[in-house]
Amino acid sequence: MSKKRAHEQKKQAEIINFELPFEPDKKFKTIIYASISVIAFALAYYYLAAAKSANGYFSFPLDDPWIHLTFAKNLAHYFSFSYFKNEMATAGSTSPVYTFLVAAGFVVSNNEMIISYVVGILFFILSGVYFYKLSGFDFAKENYFALLFTAIFVADKWMSFISVSGMETTMFIFTLIAAAYFYRKRNTAVFAVFLGLILWGRPDGVTFIGALAVDYFFAARFSKTDKTIKLFSKNDFVKIGIITGAIVVLYFIMNFVLSGSLLPNTYSAKLTYYAPEFKSRSEFLKFEVWDYFTSGAYGILAVGFIFSAVKMLYDLAKKKYNPNILYVLAVFALIFVYWFKLPYAHRFGRYLMPAIPFIILASGLGFRELSIIAGNYFKSKNLANGFMILVSAVIILYSFLNYNENKAVYAEQCAYIHDRQVVTAQWIKENTKPEDVIATHDVGAIGYYSERKIVDVAGLITPELITKINDRNYTTFLMDYLKKSNVSYLAFLREWYRVVNQNPLYTSVNKDPIEFMDVFRYEPDKTYIISKEANSIIMAAQDMLGRRSPQQALQYLQQALRVEPNSSYTYLMLAYAYSGMRDNANAEKSLKKALEIFPDFKEALLLSANFDKQTGKRDEAVKSLERLIKIDPQNKAALDMLKSLSDTTQIKK
After folding, report:
1. pLDDT tens digits for 449-470?
2. Do 62 and 96 have their domain in common?
3. Sorting pLDDT into bands at 50, 70 and 90, what band is 439?
4. Other residues' Cβ atoms within 10 Å of the Cβ of residue 387
5. What is the extent of the structural domain holding 376?
6. Where do runs of H (alpha helix) occur along 56-142?
7. Is 3 inside a domain boundary?
């Protein structure tokens, strides 16, 4: 026997066997699947119950779910993939397959909330079950660890959150997990179906398809020396090509017929609106990736994931296949595509949520490798397995703590969307005519509940606007487009599109006023929407005022006036800035300019009255208040101030 061979046998003898033999039978697996289902349902339902108790109604923490619901309702009722009855047919759904499923729900129920919750929770349950099945490949000899990391996935704070958010995310996550499972199982036909459905779930699923291709490339390459690697046969590839190809071609055909492009409108619209030229790639990586995936339980998981990635690179260098290739590449590919094309993870990081199950799986495998290294070093199987169990338990505990904290966030965000989008939609339905056309950038709840035809100024369902969105003169083009489209009303969040020199007919609730939704009567050749550039500058000025930095706010506002010199709102903000600097003369001068541009400016009239009251100019204050009350008879602040002035006059007499 050669010295090298003898050395290898001695080294093998020193390696401790860390397997924990446990292979549940069919009956026990059924119990496991049932347990996962019950726990997932209970965790998701608890969020719903807590939000209902806190708010008194059901809602979603995002406006986007009602986009799916509007398409789905029209598909069920009018057999048209359209956004208004059987009109406006367009490829405006990022996830057509999810829209089809919700449309099927409308066949048995008209309750949009129940339909969305049932579909979201169902796919959360299926994701949990298939996560366990997939992890069975990775922990083939340690099924206990497969159970532990499945518990981590089910307890994840964002999985329950997004399952009751009315979005396609849990369905998409299930599609990815199932595709990975049947790929690892080498079940050709089922894998081909799920592979084809990935794009139907979301266009960014192409990153996972790429990760699968790279994984298979290395599997095929290393199978020559590792006979345990199972590959697809040539006939299998033919089947995959036919089944997946047919599903993908149908997807492209549908989009092309509806909108003349291979991908949905939402893809182009969001790439345009959140283009890297306008969003910071470095801030995306720092705040929306690093901070997101290192907070709470993710901070511990990150350690295992990083080690897993390092071990993967080490194995590749040694020409050894590592099953983590798929998981690690799936995560990095998704992050890279968003970093490169769309540096924006959206609210709650939902665009990156599909990476979560693969981070958890890769992390579990990373911690297992660390446990093996530690166990071999100390020559203790119990230490290695004990370390693995301890780490898993700590992550599960952290996950449940994070889950409980996120419950309040879910309830608050449901109320936030309801108070702005839903209530605004209800106001529009009650105060406008059925034939009126509404222009808005948040088309979800407004499109669903107002039952009015919508012009989407963000381009999601109005694709002809997409190429113009980032033009400097977009608002000029937009106002002409609104006129040609016979728009009657505008419903805008001020932070997105700001109408000046006109009082809103309706303003959303002032509770937690991070964003305000205003409704205006659209008057062609009179309604004035300031440019996106000017509004961004004004928003920066408001931020400075909020930080009590009026001097910096003043600089921003003067810049905004150079861009949009006829904005009464900018002069109002100038008055606030000068007031913060105790420069009352320029504050009053700015107010007069605001009222010169727009004499019926309610906020400026109230502030002007307040200035006059403080400086003893009672008659001028009364004059401003009477004008304001004539415009807005129910203005409580004006009525109270006028009463106080009257009471003061009577006391003096």
Report:
1. 999 999 998 888 888 887 787 7
2. yes
3. very high
4. 19
5. 25-414
6. 65-78, 96-108, 112-138
7. no
